[in-house]
Amino acid sequence: MGRASYVGERALGEPDPGALGIALLFWAFAAATEPADAPAAPLPR
């Protein structure tokens, strides 16, 4: 039972903070190892 168990429908349309953090971590690693091939940063809408 994660954040959704107590936030409920208020979280609809918002990115999951934990998933966004992991995505940014992997993006930073990819950008550091292959800067020319790295996609744009996965920032929230």
TrEMBL record:
Gene3D superfamilies linked: 1.25.40.340
Q: Which SUPFAM superfamilies match?
A: DhaL-like (SSF101473)
Cite the DhaL domain residue spans from the record.
1-31
**Pfam families in the record:** Dak2 (PF02734)
Q: What is this protein called?
A: DhaL domain-containing protein
